Amino acid sequence: MTHTPEPAAKRAPPPRIPSVFIAGVRYAQIPGDVETDGQIGGFLAAYDASNREIWRIKVYDNPRRPELEGDVQDVWFRSLRAEGGKLLIENERGLRLEVDPATRRVSGHPAPTPEPPPDIDPISGQPRIRRPEAKDDRNAPGNDQPVIR
User: Fold this and answer.
1) How many CA within 13 A on the CB side of residue 13?
2) Which of these, 22, 14, 18, lies nearest to 91 by C-alpha position?
3) pLDDT 10s digits, 1-57
4) How far is 49 from 19, CA to CA, in rounded Å?
5) Per-residue pLDDT tens for 59-115?
C-alpha cells in the first residue's frame, strides 16, 4: 500500500488578532482583495454597534511580486490594541503603526533594526574576535602581493 503525502501549507495561517473597541466602535483587521486592493493583508475596518462597516483603510503597502507565490507575500497584523484613543498596530515584519480613528491618519515607525552582536560571546564568555574591515589596498606603497580573483 502506498501513502500519498498531504500537500504542505506554504505558510502558517494569519495570526488571530482580536478586535478592539474605542467609544463603542469596533476596529478589526480585514483581509483585502488582490483584484481590487492589490494586496491581501494590511487593512483595518471600523464597525458601528449594529456591525455595519463604517470605513476601511489600508494601513501599510505590501505590493505583490508576480513571480512569487501569493500567500507567502501576505503580511498580516501581529497585534492590534487601543491606547489613548489611538490604534496601535504591529505587523509581522515588525513595522509599528499608529492610526488615529478620528482622522484615519496613519503614522509609522520603521521595523526595529537588529542590534549588533555584543562584544562578549554569550557561550564562551570571551571577547569576540573582530575581523578588520576589508580595504582595497592593492595600490598601497609596498604592496607587492598579486591580486587573486
Assistant:
1) 2
2) 14
3) 555 555 555 667 778 899 999 999 999 999 888 888 878 889 999 999 999 999 999
4) 13
5) 998 877 777 776 777 888 999 999 999 999 999 888 999 999 999 999 986 555 555
Whole-number Cα distances in Å, 141 to 135, 145, 147: 14, 11, 15
User: Which single residue is written with the C-alpha cell 487593512?
Assistant: 43
**Structural element, H or E, at residue 118:** none
Distance (Å, whole) CA 149 – CA 146: 10
Length of the chain: 149
**Cβ atoms 112, 127 nearer than 8 A:** no
Look at residues 92, 70, 69 and name the one whose alpha carbon lies nearest to residue 79.
92
| Spatial contact of 137 and 143, defined as CB atoms under 8 Å apart | yes
In whole angstroms, give the CA distance from residue 49 to residue 37. 26
Using an 8 Å Cβ cutoff, are 53 and 60 in contact? Answer: no
State the amino acid at position 34 in one-letter form. V
The pTM for the full model equals 0.64
